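FORM 12-B: Structure-to-Sequence Request
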C-alpha cells in the first residue's frame, strides 16, 4: 500500500500534457580544429585530457601514430564494466592498455589486434573506481600517419549499454490485471501487446547523440518521457495498467509526444539528461502513455524502463 502511495504521488506530479521540447544543454564539444583530427572525441592525446566514457555505443573513432587516444572508464562499486572494442583495420603496431591511473599499474594489455575484443573490468570494492584506457599505435615501428578505426561499446553490469528493467512480461512482477506484455516490454495495452522504450547511440552530440524512441504504443495517443534518479536497485510497482519503475530519486519530465499511426514516438535530438541531472548520476527512463481502451480500465500504461548513466 505504501508503495502504491509513492507511485501515486509520483504520477500525480507528472501531468500528461504536450510540452515544448526541453532546450539542449551545452554539450562537451571538443574543438575539432585540434590537430590531428581523427574523430569527434579528439583532443585526448594525453592522460590528463582523457575523455570520460559512460555506457553507450561510440562508433567511428580512430587513432593515428603519435596521437594516442585516452579514455577514462568509471566502474561503480561491486560492478563489472564491459568494454567491447571493435577494431576495423589490422595493424601490427596497434595496442590497447588499461591502467588504474595515468602512470599506474598495467591491468590489461593487448596488441596485434583486429575484430571485436572484449574487456571486463571488475570492481569488487565498495567504492567506485576509475581506469585509464589507452589505444595507440607504436610510432617506434611505424609512423605513416594512417588511421586505425575502431568502435567502442561501454556497458555497466551487463553486456548491453542500456539495460531494460521493470519489464511487464511477468519476470519481475505481475501486471495489474494479469495483462502481461511480450518479453522485455511493458504490460500489454489495448493493442494486445506491450510497448517498448529503446535507447541507442551515445550521449555525446559529437557522435550523433542518444536515440530515444518508444515503439509499439497505441497509435496517436500522448506519451510522456520521464526519468527518475536511481540509487541502488529499482523498485517495480504495478500501477495503472502497467509497471512503474521507482528508482528512489527525483522525477523529471522530458516532454510528451503523440505516437504516430504506427505507435512510435521519438525524443531523439531533444532529450538531454545532463540538463536536469548531476554528471555521472544513474537514472531510469520510462514512457507513460494514455490508453483509454486499456485492459485494466485505468486509462494509461507504461513502457518498460531503461537504465543509463548521465554523461560526466
Ligand atoms: Ca582518436
Ligand atoms: Ca588521438
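FORM 12-B RESPONSE
SEQUENCE OUT:
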Amino acid at each position: 500500500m505504501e508503495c502504491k502511495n509513492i507511485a501515486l504521488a509520483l504520477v500525480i506530479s507528472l501531468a500528461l500534457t504536450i510540452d515544448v521540447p526541453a532546450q539542449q544543454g551545452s554539450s562537451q564539444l571538443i574543438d575539432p580544429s585540434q590537430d590531428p583530427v581523427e574523430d569527434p572525441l579528439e583532443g585526448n592525446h594525453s592522460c590528463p585530457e582523457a575523455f570520460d566514457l559512460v555506457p553507450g555505443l561510440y562508433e567511428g573513432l580512430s587513432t593515428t601514430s603519435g596521437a594516442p587516444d585516452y579514455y577514462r572508464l568509471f566502474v561503480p562499486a561491486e560492478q563489472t564494466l564491459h568494454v567491447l572494442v571493435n577494431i576495423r583495420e589490422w595493424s601490427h603496431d596497434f595496442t590497447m592498455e588499461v591502467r588504474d591511473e595515468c602512470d599506474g599499474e598495467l591491468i590489461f594489455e593487448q596488441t596485434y589486434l583486429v575484430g571485436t575484443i572484449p574487456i571486463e573490468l571488475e570492481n569488487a570494492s565498495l567504492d567506485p573506481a576509475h581506469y585509464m584506457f589507452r589505444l595507440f599505435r607504436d610510432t617506434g615501428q611505424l609512423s605513416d600517419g594512417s588511421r586505425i578505426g575502431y568502435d567502442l561499446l561501454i556497458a555497466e553490469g551487463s553486456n548491453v549499454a542500456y539495460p531494460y528493467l521493470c519489464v511487464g512480461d511477468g519476470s519481475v512482477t505481475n501486471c495489474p490485471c494479469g495483462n502481461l506484455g511480450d518479453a522485455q516490454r511493458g504490460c500489454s495495452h489495448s493493442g494486445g501487446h506491450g510497448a517498448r522504450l529503446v535507447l541507442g547511440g551515445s550521449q555525446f552530440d559529437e557522435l550523433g547523440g542518444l536515440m530515444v524512441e518508444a515503439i509499439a504504443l497505441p497509435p496517436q495517443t500522448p506519451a510522456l518521457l520521464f526519468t527518475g534518479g536511481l540509487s541502488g536497485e529499482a523498485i517495480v510497482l504495478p500501477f495503472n495498467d502497467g509497471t512503474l519503475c521507482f528508482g528512489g530519486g527525483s522525477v523529471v519530465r522530458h516532454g510528451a509526444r503523440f505516437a504516430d499511426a504506427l505507435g512510435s514516438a521519438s525524443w531523439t535530438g531533444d532529450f538531454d539528461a545532463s540538463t536536469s541531472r548531476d554528471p555521472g548520476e544513474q537514472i531510469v527512463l520510462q514512457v507513460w502513455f494514455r490508453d483509454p481502451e486499456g485492459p485494466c480500465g485505468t486509462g494509461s500504461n507504461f513502457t518498460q524502463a531503461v537504465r543509463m548513466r548521465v554523461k560526466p
